[in-house]
Amino acid sequence: xxxxxxxxxxxxxxxxxxxxxxxxxxxxxxxxxxxxxxxxxxxxxxxxxxxxxxxxxxxxxxxxxxxxxxxxxxxxxxxxxxxxxxxxxxxxxxxxxxxxxxxxxxxxxxxxxxxxxxxxxxxxxxxxxxxxxxxxxxxxxxxxxxxxxxxxxxxxxxxxxxxxxxxxxxxxxxxxxxxxxxxxxxxxxxxxxxxxxxxxxxxxxxxxxxxxxxxxxxxxxxxxxxxxxxxxxxxxxxxxxxxxxxxxxxxxxxxxxxxxxxxx
Length: 264
Fold this sequence. Notes:
Elements: H1 2-40, H2 44-80, H3 84-88, H4 95-124, H5 128-149, H6 151-182, H7 189-219, H8 227-259
Helix pairs in contact: 1-2, 1-4, 2-4, 2-6, 4-6, 5-6, 6-7, 6-8
């Protein structure tokens, strides 16, 4: 059933995200042409037009990143916390499946947004004469990393991927938990969800800062055998912290949806 939920969720969100990515890439192409035009012309009108297109591209980059979060929050809210929630909670699926489907789809679109922004930046700065230099530099970089660090490089890649996925899930879950707690009340649900979001942020920042100071004082006394080992140790601590963060907010979200949800 989780597969069907994912399929439905991807279809619903793709109607917004894919046109948004397409518009960003079109603006990137126009932005590239505009920069060339600004370099080649002295006509004031064309310079103004080119500047406006580049400004629109910059605004689109910002909007795409914000919309990824807005879509994530909106889908959770509209599906589970409004009248549509009556239908969703009558389906023969668990709350865990509903929440996990939201998290998975949102994390995929976060990654898709990052890739779209990266490709758009490549397009807007594209120059034929720089392509060979970029490919050569990229090839040399990866050859150096994998030739000198071998298994460490592969492990680092997996660690970075784990941090990326867990960070995306953590972003989703703190919003989901705030909404789930806020909508357990009968009045001012949206306002209370916002208040709980800031409460959760303050609490996690406070605890995180304290633990960082505590661990930092101990790490100062520890001499690692090499730089790679220190990197793996730091990443392991970050991954463990992200797992704990996700677990806490996942439990809050599912518990309130199961036991305290108020759709009235």
